[in-house]
C-alpha cells in the first residue's frame, strides 16, 4: 500500500467519529451531574439502600426499552457480570466519598479514571495509544490537582473518589468489551438485575420506611444514571475507549456548575483555572484529529 493510502485509511478509521463521541460524553456529563445531585438529596438513606433502589428502578425502566427497541436480551456473561460487580463496588465507594467531601472536588479526583482507563484499554483491549493522547491526559491531571487543591483538608473523600475512579475504569473496559457483542440497553438491564440481587439485603437491614421525596429522588436518579451510562455506551461505540477517556473530564466543569447552582457549594476561582486546563487537555486530541484531516496527500498519489 502506498504511504498516502495508509494515511487516508488511518484517518478514515478513527478521526470522523471522535467529535460525535465527545458530544455523547458531554451529554453523559449532564446526566452524571443530575444523578449525583439526586443522590446527595437522599443523604438520610444508607448508601447500599440508595443503590438498591436505583438498581431496582432501573430494571423496570430498562426492560420495556429493551423490548420496544427490539434489542436482543442476550449478552456475553463474563464481561457483563464483571462490569456489574465493578460498577456496584465503584458506585458504593463513590457515594461514600460524597459523604466526606464536596461534589465538585470528588468529581475532579474521580476524573483520574480517564488516565486509568487509557492504561487498562491498552493492556486489556489492546488499543494503540498515541503520544498526543498521553500528553492530553498529563495536562488534564494538572487541572485535576488544581481543582482538588482547596479540598485537601478532606482527604478521606478524595482518596475514596480516586479508588472509585480506578475500579470504575475497570468496569468501563469490561463495558466496552461487552459492547462488541450486544447493545448497551441489554448490558445495563442485566447489570441492574445483578446489582439488585446482590444488594437485596439493604432494604431488609434498613427497613422499608420511605417518604415520597426519597422515592422521587431515587426514581429521578435512576433515570439520570441510565441516561449517563447509555450516552457513555453510544460514545464508546463510535470511537475507541482510549480516544474518549480524556473527554470524560467534561464532567468536572459541568459538575462544578451543578454543585454551585443546586447544592450551594462554594466556588473557588481555581475551579475556573483547573477547568480551563482540563478543556485545553481535551482539545489536544481534537487538534490532532484536525491536523490529520488537513494533511495533504503525497505527490505520488
Tally of strands: 0
Mean pLDDT rating: 77
The computed structural class is: mainly alpha
Termini separation:
11 Å
List SSEs in N-to-C order: HHHHHHHHHHHHHH
**Which parts are unreliable, with pLDDT below 50 for 5 consecutive residues or more?**
1-15, 295-301
- Tell me the overall shape: globular
Largest β sheet strand count, sense and barrel closure: none
Overall helicity: over 70%
Alpha plus pi helix count? 14
Beta-strand fraction estimate: under 5%
Report Rg.
20 Å
Quick summary of this structure?
With 301 residues, this protein is an all-alpha fold.
Topology, element by element:
Blueprint: H1 3-14, H2 18-41, H3 47-68, H4 77-98, H5 103-110, H6 113-124, H7 131-148, H8 155-179, H9 184-198, H10 201-206, H11 212-238, H12 241-244, H13 251-262, H14 269-294
Helix pairs in contact: 2-11, 2-13, 3-9, 3-11, 4-8, 4-9, 5-7, 5-8, 5-13, 6-8, 7-14
Amino acid at each position: 500500500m502506498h504511504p498516502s493510502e495508509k494515511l487516508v485509511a488511518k484517518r478514515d478509521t478513527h478521526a470522523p467519529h471522535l467529535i460525535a463521541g465527545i458530544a455523547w460524553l458531554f451529554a453523559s456529563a449532564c446526566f452524571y451531574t443530575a444523578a449525583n445531585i439526586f443522590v446527595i438529596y437522599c443523604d438520610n438513606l444508607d448508601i447500599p439502600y440508595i443503590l438498591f433502589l436505583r438498581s431496582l428502578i432501573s430494571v423496570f425502566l430498562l426492560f420495556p426499552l429493551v423490548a420496544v427497541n427490539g434489542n436482543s436480551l442476550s449478552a456475553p456473561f463474563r464481561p457483563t457480570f464483571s462490569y456489574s460487580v465493578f460498577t456496584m463496588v465503584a458506585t458504593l465507594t463513590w457515594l461514600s466519598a460524597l459523604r466526606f467531601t464536596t461534589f465538585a472536588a470528588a468529581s475532579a479526583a474521580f476524573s483520574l479514571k480517564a488516565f486509568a482507563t487509557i492504561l487498562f484499554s491498552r493492556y486489556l483491549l489492546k488499543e494503540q495509544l498515541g503520544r498526543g493522547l498521553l500528553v492530553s491526559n498529563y495536562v488534564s491531571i494538572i487541572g485535576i490537582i488544581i481543582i482538588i487543591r482547596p479540598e485537601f483538608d478532606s482527604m478521606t473523600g478524595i482518596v475514596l473518589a480516586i479508588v472509585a475512579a480506578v475500579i470504575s475504569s475497570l468496569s468501563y473496559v469490561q463495558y466496552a468489551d461487552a459492547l462488541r457483542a450486544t447493545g448497551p440497553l441489554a448490558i445495563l438491564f442485566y447489570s441492574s438485575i445483578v446489582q439488585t440481587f446482590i444488594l437485596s439485603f439493604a432494604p431488609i437491614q434498613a427497613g422499608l420506611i420511605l417518604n415520597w421525596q426519597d422515592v422521587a429522588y431515587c426514581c429521578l436518579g435512576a433515570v439520570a444514571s441510565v441516561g449517563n451510562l447509555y450516552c457513555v455506551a453510544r460514545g464508546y461505540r463510535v470511537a475507541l475507549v482510549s480516544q474518549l477517556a480524556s473527554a470524560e473530564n467534561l464532567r468536572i466543569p459541568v459538575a462544578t456548575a451543578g454543585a454551585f447552582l443546586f447544592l450551594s457549594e462554594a466556588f473557588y476561582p481555581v475551579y475556573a483555572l483547573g477547568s480551563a486546563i482540563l478543556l485545553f487537555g481535551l482539545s489536544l486530541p481534537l487538534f490532532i484529529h484536525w491536523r490529520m484531516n488537513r494533511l495533504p496527500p503525497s505527490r505520488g498519489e
